[in-house]
């Protein structure tokens, strides 16, 4: 028997015109199901030739705006209104999404550190490998929706990375601005190796992401940004007809300079002193940490290292040494 490119089997045909709901069937032999399969939902809407876009949600399971927006988009899209192909995977790390966890409860893998995946890996690595080898080559643009998950919250933004390939960066920035989030950001990643982002960019394709809300839930505002962003990106690529509305103004910001990230060096009771979205000056207090072992001690105050907007924060009321605490973005 010839070796298959992937052990994952799609029940959809990516070349077929029309709308299909199906699954990526991932072999998952286990104690309670010897010949078991993990079925990851996927939807494809195709009509004739044209660009291909991949939308993903649930790359981190506890980040839900993309998951909500993509199940709605998949149901609503009519192949008649499409020129090209729209591939939607609402729950990329499906077991994690079901469990409201960042990582998979099956193999503890963080999907967004698992790319390009492994052909003979665990279920998460198999999914990443299938996407890398059999879906990404079809795509012109990938839009991957994120949020803060259970441990972070954000002032909602869409984001891209600074890329050495200038023409690719220019096309990526055009897609970012077309998405029309209230804030459009150049995001400096703390750890980019193994991310879907990095894999797509390394293939010379346009990659756009977003960080919308957090705390493991959604709001009408954050889902609305995802809903409208999907529609505008489809029109931007010419897959659907242009919408009547003008792209709303977006605030273009950056986090790739020094002093944007604050990481906690203390553990304890976490008290935020600035609101998300607030304008801060260098030296302004961001948060303070109270000792839970010695409450008589004065709290440790953390201050902004530069001027900007508080755009991301640690969410739980208890913080540990090494936790991400705050992200300040500045106008680009
Ligand atoms: Ca995430």
Describe the 3D structure.
21% of the residues lie in helices and 30% in strands. By secondary structure, the chain is α+β, with helices and mostly antiparallel strands. The protein is globular. The protein starts with 8 loop residues before the first strand and ends with a strand. It binds calcium ion (CA). Calcium ion (CA) binds at residues 60, 63, 146, 149.
Can I get a quick summary?
With 332 residues, this protein is α+β, with helices and mostly antiparallel strands.
Strand content: 25-35%
Ligand identities: calcium ion
**How would you sum up the global shape?**
globular
The mean pLDDT is 96
Largest sheet entry: 15 strands, mixed
Radius of gyration: 21 Å
Poorly predicted regions are: none
Helical residue percent band: 10-25%
Task: State the distance separating the first and last CA atoms.
Answer: 55 Å
Structure summary, number of beta strands? 19
Oligomer state of the chains in this structure:
single chain
Helix/strand/pairing category: alpha+beta
Number of helices: 6
Order of helices and strands: EEEEHEHHEEEHEHEHEEEEEEEEE
């Amino acid at each position: 028997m010839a070796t298959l490119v992937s052990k994952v089997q799609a029940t959809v045909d990516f070349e077929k015109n029309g709308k299909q709901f199906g699954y990526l069937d991932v072999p998952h032999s286990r104690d309670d199901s010897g010949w078991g399969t993990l079925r990851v939902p996927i939807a494809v809407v195709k009509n004739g030739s044209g660009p291909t876009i991949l939308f993903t949600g649930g790359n981190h399971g506890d980040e839900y705006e993309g998951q909500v927006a993509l199940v709605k988009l998949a149901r609503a899209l009519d192949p008649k209104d499409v020129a090209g192909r729209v591939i939607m995977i609402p729950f990329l790390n499906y077991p994690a999404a079901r469990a409201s966890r960042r990582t998979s409860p099956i193999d503890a893998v963080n999907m967004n550190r698992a790319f390009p995946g492994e052909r003979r890996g665990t279920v998460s690595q198999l999914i990443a490998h299938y996407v890398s080898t059999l879906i990404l080559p079809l795509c012109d643009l990938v839009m991957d929706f994120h949020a803060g998950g259970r441990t972070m919250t954000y002032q909602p933004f869409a984001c891209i990375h600074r890329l050495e390939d200038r023409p690719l960066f220019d096309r990526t920035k055009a897609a970012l601005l077309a998405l029309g989030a209230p804030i459009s950001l150049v995001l400096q990643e703390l750890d980019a190796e193994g991310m879907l982002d990095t894999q797509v960019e390394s293939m010379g394709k346009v990659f756009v992401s977003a960080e919308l809300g957090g705390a493991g839930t959604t709001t009408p505002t954050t889902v609305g940004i995802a809903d409208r962003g999907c529609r505008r990106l489809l029109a931007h690529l010419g897959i659907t007809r242009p919408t009547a509305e003008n792209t709303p103004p977006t605030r273009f910001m950056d986090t790739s300079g020094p002093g944007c990230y604050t990481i906690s060096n203390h553990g304890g009771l976490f008290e935020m002193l600035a609101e998300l979205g607030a304008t801060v000056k260098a030296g302004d207090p961001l948060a303070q940490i109270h000792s839970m072992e010695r409450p008589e001690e004065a709290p440790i105050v953390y201050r902004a290292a530069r001027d900007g907007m508080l755009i991301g924060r640690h969410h739980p009321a208890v913080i540990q040494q090494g936790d991400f605490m705050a992200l300040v973005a500045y106008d680009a």
